[in-house]
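Help needed: design a sequence for this.
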């Protein structure tokens, strides 16, 4: 079974095709966290999170911190064991 070799994350601002306007204001970009997992098999997994504080209580900073806290659970794990990994991460976070 493949094992997770590395976990990395970075924040980026993605431009929107068109501005998005609500009563809270006008947005021309979306702040997003991109997550990358490298497996010892050579496979790469990508994911993203777009935290919105007034909806979820999360921020870019809290998402990056959670990813960092998850590192000790993720590195060396078998990604096929995603259910037990998610339960363990729930305890860590």
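Sure. Designed sequence:
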């Amino acid at each position: 079974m493949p094992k997770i070799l590395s976990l990395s994350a970075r924040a980026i601002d993605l431009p929107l095709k068109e501005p998005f306007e609500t009563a809270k204001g006008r947005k021309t970009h979306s702040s997003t966290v991109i997550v990358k997992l490298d497996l010892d098999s050579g496979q790469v997994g990508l994911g993203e999170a777009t935290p919105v504080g007034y909806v979820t209580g999360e921020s870019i900073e809290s998402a990056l911190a959670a990813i960092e806290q998850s590192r000790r659970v993720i590195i060396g794990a078998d990604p096929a064991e995603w259910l037990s990994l998610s339960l363990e991460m729930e305890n860590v976070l």
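The chain has a mean pLDDT of 94.
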